[in-house]
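Checklist before submission:
- one chain only
- standard amino acids only
- sequence pasted in full

Submission:
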Amino acid sequence: MKTSIFLITTITIMFAFTALSCDRSANKMERAQTDVIEAERDINIAQAEIEADVRIYRQKIADDIRENNVAIADIKREIQNEEPESRAAHEVRIAELERSNSDHKQRIDNYSITNRDSWDSFKKSFSSSMDDLGNSLNNFFSRSTTSSN
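Returned file contents:
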């Protein structure tokens, strides 16, 4: 009788541990699935944020490129009244600026999103390059008068 009570108790305890162990595995599996779902959601949110940032930045750059085109057109009008020699030199420089403006447009249009770090790096480099182009347009005549002296 003692043996059968001991045997029944042992079997019951083993069954309880087995049942608890299975429950823990099921809970771990549910937590893992929940973690995966949350990670996918976080990735989707991050991707959507990058895409929105790129879309907004592209619009800003499109505006900047339009402004550059207006500045280039203004410069072209101004150089029409200059001496042929200086006009020719200005036309060469303005062609370079037009090409640079066009290259910037193509570069931003063709950019494909990969991840946040590469986007941030591209954006920093591109902004610097656009600033240089804008400064070149703004200082077109002041630079040309000092370089011809």
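Reviewer check: The radius of gyration is 34 Å.
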